[in-house]
Amino acid sequence: MTQLKNLQDLYLEQLKDLYSAETQLVEALPKMEQAATDPKLKDGFRTHLEQTRQHVSRLESVFADLGEQPGGHTCKAMKGLIAEGSEMIEQQAADAVKDAGLIACAQRVEHYEIAGYGTVARYAEVLGKSQHVETLRMTESEEKKTDALLTDLAGTINTSALNA
């Protein structure tokens, strides 16, 4: 475990956490897409996978700018969130009920990412790294849009689950 001496160290540690979270998500999203039955939800997971790959690339550019390597850290929170998603995938449930559960799992992931990107963007502001702020806020905005999309899908899918 690295000693955190200042905000720059904390910033780097939090960026590594997000990088780990995003790379874990790249592995998990295809499984969620496969488990989903609603075509719009499947499409949403597919779209978010492409977006997540862009997020990984953006983080890699931030690390390159810092002269640092992105690896060497495992995001335990994302590991747990993905484990919950895996449990939902394995559940015996009516299609709409499983889809509603997958949305719940995906929204927990989105909320974690929104919090993480908001935090590192603020650190970047304090550290005077305006280019990083722009990059990180762009990703935070995309995570918020994905969360809103999931909320919209949940309206229909939750109603279907009610009547399953």
TrEMBL record:
Domain of life assignment: Bacteria
InterPro entries to which the protein is assigned, alphabetical: DUF892_YciF-like, Ferritin-like, Ferritin-like_SF, YciF
Gene3D superfamilies listed in its UniProt record: 1.20.1260.10
Name used for this protein in its record: Ferritin-like metal-binding protein YciE
SUPFAM superfamilies reported in the protein's UniProt record: Ferritin-like
One Pfam family hit: DUF892
Annotated source species: Deinococcus metalli
